[in-house]
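User: My instructor asked us to take a sequence, write out its structure as tokens, and then describe one feature of it. I'm not sure where to start. Here is the sequence I was given:
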Amino acid sequence: MDTVIIVSVVVLAIAVVCVLIYAVLRGRKKKTPLPPVREETAAPEEPSEQSEAGQEPALIPKTLPYAADEVKHLTFQDDHATYLIFPSEEENVQIDLVDNEETPYEITLTDGKLEIKRPRKNAGNSRFRRNAEKETAEECMEVRIALPKTFGSLSVSTVHGDIDVKKLALSDLSLQTTHGDISMFQVKVTGEVPSPSDVNFNAKTTKGNILADRSGSLHGAVNFTTVNGSVKFFNLYGKNILAKSVDGDVKGFIIGVPEDYTVISTTIHGEKVVPRSYYGPNLLKASSVNGDIDVDFRSPEEAEASDSAEQAGS
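Assistant: Let's start with the prediction itself. The structure tokens for your sequence are:
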């Protein structure tokens, strides 16, 4: 009897142990719930150039009208402008331009001197460099300047645009660009200068052509200079004329007689066709490095006849 009880107890104990072992093993096999998936939050994007400044700067067309007696002299500087300058039908001053709210024009008028300038951005700023490259590849903004047919001094400058002036009489003229052409048609500079060698008709570009048609200075010197481009003039007049190119031709006709001029001409890789020098009081100096020089004189009568022939053919 005692043996049966002992066996029963042992069997029961073994059963309990088995149940416990089974429970433990089953608990281990049970999958541990994964932690909740955390949604990845994207890193904030760096603000773009547009978001830094908000919206793209607005372009605002403007017209600046002035009475003729208000403005006697004009200076205009905009690195990304192309200029059209012509006589006003109303004999007043009117300037049509496109302003930029990010870098608006600075405009001052003092004692008849009107000055309009576009502030230059920081060239070291990478954003500016990218914008400058974009503007360079695109067409520059057009500035239209209407002046009285007889006006005081005019000075305009740009970097990436052309300059075109026609049918004006000015006391002093200065035109300057870097990547653009300069053209002048019937532009007369009449201002007095201390010496005939003082320049009061100046046109200068670096990568562009210079063309002057029936233009010149009555009392001062004419200075046409380019680096990569040609200098051409048709019926140009002036007591002292300097025409220079590095990689380009210098060609044209000057109103006058050779006896009144000292002629100096030089070229390294090009041909020269120039009149002999009579060592007169006036000066013609034409030079190039990689280009031809072909310059001659016309009497006033010949110049007038050629003008009439051209007008009849047009």
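For the description part of your assignment, you could build on this observation: The first strand starts at residue 59 and ends at 66. Try explaining in your own words what that tells you about the chain.
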